[in-house]
Amino acid sequence: MPKKALIFVGVALFVIAALFAAAILIGRLEHPPEVSQTVSAGSAATPSVIYATSFPDLTGKSQALGQWSQKLLVINFWASWCPPCLAEMPIFVRLQDRYGAKGLQIVGIAADSSANAAKFAEKLKINYPVLADESRAIEFSKRTGNRLGLLPYTIVLSPKGEVILTKLGMVEETEFATLIEKYLSQ
Amino acid sequence: MNNSNFYALSSKLALAFIMLSGISISVAAEPNKSNVGAELLAPNAAFKPEIRQRDAFTAELRVEIAPGYYLYRDRIRVEQLRSPTPAKKISPKQNSDKRATLPSKATVVNLALSKPDGKPTDDPTFGRVDIYDTNTTMLIDLTTLGKTNQNVSLSVISQGCAAVGVCFPPQKQMFTLKYQPNALVMGQWSRPTNPEGDNTISFGTSGLTSALPTNGAPASSPAPVRAAKPL
Q1: Which residues of chain B have a CB within 8 Å of the CB of A29?
Q2: CA–CA distance, A109 with A152 (Å, rounded to integer)
Q3: The domain A47-184 belongs to what CATH superfamily?
Q4: Which of A43, A55, A96, B108 measures 20 to 30 Å from B25, CA to CA?
């Protein structure tokens, strides 16, 4: 191949690669990635803090999260003013039903009054413990890594006491079930 | 161009191509690290309310809403914090009436708010819900303020979400409005005195019921604002 042709090919490849990189970077800027789940070992969530925390259940009785430390524990923060939270909760009902006997424990913490939480827990036929604390739930979720205090927010802790996932936004059922199966089989 | 220059140039171009390709691939394959809200705005950046006096009877509440965020129309309200009145000096004759010696307590009063129509959306749980997803302006009724110049303490309480599927807790942003009933020009825009906002607000059971229709029925409307001069 003549030298000029080789140089032309080299320059063309360089330009193509530069354009490809620029297009991806511009695309990222114009379309920020949606919130999605990430395995976040070493995140701000600290299992010892989580297990040591208590919230009142819907009867007002204090419940320590540490009572479920031997389970694969899914803590879902929600509120009645949060439509994505309410849309997501049937997924947790199905997962609790499917994997509860195998060691999964889902716990809902409502950033809401116990009256509102009870109303929606009944309406959505929640089959797992629901705790409610309008004044503390959001602040607690922030301490576990939910920087802006947005909902829905979910944390998963393994039976070994490791935070294996923090998720802002709705969970995707199939993906979440795969994660649960992986950790229940260990 | 001799052979050594040619090969030097070729190898540099090849190296540049490999590096750029590597950068492109690593950018494309980078795991999503936005999980805990790194890409999302704080509520005080997503929703920016301002208030100004419009005339003797009304103030304007203007809310700048960032693209990709929305507020629920029926979860916006304005409260006035009324300061306690000091104890009055009383004559010996009045002294037998102990109530006259006591100052009144601070009270919070809901001010009527006239809102434009929202954008109707269908929510699987709540039915039809109206939202604001662009900048919007509402009118606050000031007819209860009387006819004296005063600094009025107002709170704007609102709740909204990001379109990516996450919601902010109810926010409370506080304002001091310099109310001048006889002013001939519109007041200056006031910004929140607590820029960070306060997210420890409760709608309470009744507030939720009125704000969120459960069967598609229209939500309760705020009290009408006294007719104001056209803008």
Answers
A1: none
A2: 10
A3: Glutaredoxin (3.40.30.10)
A4: A43
